[in-house]
């Protein structure tokens, strides 16, 4: 095996009797390198977008969110939830009630999600002031019996409320109990009013900015007829806490009655779509890599023809047919390995340049997007997977052709 590898290495770098073989070998290495580089760059860009979205979610979603496994609500005084609240690692625990409702203002209406939260919600969301506009505003949910509505910025545009609106914002929610009087359809709804605190929020996520209203939990419980209930318990851990350890402990306490989700699990649908897109890109580029490996087959077939005399000499020296075949298999593997290493190095270099200088921008006008240039994040596991993929594809692509040509042309 060592002899076969040594001869294969000499064949790869030595000058052939026909220069075109060297050229084709170089093209083979270059083709594999370009396909590998494309894999590194493309998967890193997907990672960049995933990390970017993850950073945005951290601005609004709680570190841990506990929701009922069945139904929409659970008793706020459930002993299980009380035990979780009292864990020493919990810094802030916020009760929340949210459900769908109809918002009406000056003849305009929109289906919204009214999210009622405790007064300590500003402690729950890290750097809440950065989400409120005008910047530096304080979160006000109610004053005495007057309840405020903090709208998402796109929802405020859709309803035409502006930053500060005059008069009440009417909220309609269907009654949970009783029969609907068909002669008076409005009787089937609970109606209440919310007022403007002079601020809106902007999370830069359509899900929240275009469909959410923040208000006090007492208002949400009243309009949704959920007194003493909650939709979720949102937790913030103390700095330095073992996140995974605390999450595991809370799951053990919650059992099958409650779901315990971190930020990524709360946005599982979004991240699942991004993972599927990344997988499709990986499969598509792997097919391109397979096509690039056909150059290796051409290079090896010409090398086999060129080295016929050498093969006769090796056979006379006692080399077996298996050892001779392994020479050309190692040749193909060396081309794949060199192309993989070269492609990974070039890919990492391009990723570094994009991170440092933002060479490829998302648009011509600055400020049109959250970031001006394509985000890039290199994950070590992706590099390992790419390297293994290139070696595996290279080996499989040359295994049968080498054996076939060896038998037809050498024996």
Order of helices and strands: HHEEHEEHEEEEHEEEHEHEEHEHHHHH
Spans where pLDDT lies below 50 across 5 or more residues? none
The assembly state of the depicted protein chains is single chain
- β-strand amount: 15-25%
Number of helices: 13
Structural class: alpha+beta
In total, the number of strands is 15
Q: Main β-sheet: number of strands, strand sense, barrel status?
A: 9 strands, mixed
Query: Which descriptor suits the 3D outline?
Result: elongated
In round numbers, the mean pLDDT is 85
State the distance separating the first and last CA atoms: 20 Å
Could you estimate the helical fraction of the residues in percent? Answer: 40-55%
Radius of gyration, Cα only, in angstroms? 32 Å
Describe the structure.
- β3 (90-105) and β4 form a beta hairpin.
- This protein starts with a helix and ends with a helix.
- The protein contains 13 helices and 15 strands.
- The longest helix has 39 residues, at 19-57.
- The strands form four sheets. Strands 1, 3, 4, 8, 9, 10, 12, 14 and 15 form a nine-stranded mixed sheet that branches. A two-stranded antiparallel ribbon has the order 2-13. A two-stranded antiparallel sheet has the order 5-11.
- With 411 residues, it is an alpha+beta fold.
- The relative contact order is 0.19.
- The chain is elongated, with a radius of gyration of 32 Å.
